[in-house]
Write a sequence for this structure.
């Protein structure tokens, strides 16, 4: 699964199977659940094994914040679809005249449609309601980064992470993190 998927990535996991040495009969499906996508895919795989649907399953997540999909607005989409359906050059010219006004760009946002808030904003509300202090969250986050760095150093991820485009480690890892840095 992925958090912000581009339309070109339709059925991404099926395409991954077809592009691999796995049998084309191997079932594959996508999930999209904000920051919980990778974990939810692991849970779905474990459920499938526990229920006897699969003997073996693979799960994971893909995403990049540096290449988020940017879409054009509905007006631009309608003009392009109209151009495709237009029967005459006159009809096409009428639609082309609408192009400059219709070029509204939709910047991707990572927020829930019903609340307009991000997962982080929802987490802050939950933490407040549950009495979880910011300093405790920062200590846990720093410890998580330190634990992950130590796991890389001792080779834990060597057979779990495949190098990709020169990356051998999660590039979000901050081994020098501290509660004080996170509090800023």
């Amino acid at each position: 699964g992925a958090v912000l998927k581009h339309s070109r990535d339709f059925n991404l996991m099926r395409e991954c199977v077809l592009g691999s040495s796995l049998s084309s009969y191997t079932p594959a499906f996508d999930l999209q659940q904000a920051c919980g996508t990778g974990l939810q895919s692991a849970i779905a795989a474990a459920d499938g094994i526990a229920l006897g649907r699969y003997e073996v399953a693979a799960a994971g997540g893909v995403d990049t914040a540096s290449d988020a999909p940017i879409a054009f607005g509905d007006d631009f989409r309608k003009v392009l679809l109209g151009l495709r359906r237009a029967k005459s050059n006159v009809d096409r010219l009428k639609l082309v005249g609408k192009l400059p006004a219709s070029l509204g760009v939709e910047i991707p946002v990572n927020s829930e449609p019903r609340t307009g808030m991000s997962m982080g904003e929802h987490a802050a509300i939950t933490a407040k309601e549950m009495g979880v202090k910011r300093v405790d969250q920062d200590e846990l986050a720093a410890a998580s980064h330190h634990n992950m760095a130590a796991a890389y150093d001792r080779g834990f991820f060597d057979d779990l992470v495949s190098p990709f485009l020169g990356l051998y480690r999660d590039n979000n890892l901050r081994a020098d993190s501290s509660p004080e840095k996170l509090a800023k």
DSSP finds eight helices and two strands in the chain. The first helix runs from residue 12 to 18. The chain has a mean pLDDT of 87.
